[in-house]
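Risk register update: the risk of archive-format incompatibility is retired. Evidence:
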Amino acid sequence: MRKYTVYMWAGAWLLILPFSGVPGNWKEALTILTALFLIVYSYALRRGIRSAEDLGTAPVAEGKIQNHDIKSAATAARQDSDT
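Archived output:
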């Protein structure tokens, strides 16, 4: 499951929760548990990204190219145009 999907479902859950007819105490407890889940999930993702950056294996966002890829692509284009 993609990271943003978890946030989308948590947002939908928080949107539906007040209108679900759950008693007040339960509603408050579920809201707090959902918030704690989101905090822990975000922290774990951040730690994973930071450790990947430290190891040099950071994930590249979809559709984005790292700087060294741009430089190598430009160099390859120049070499092709020279020949």
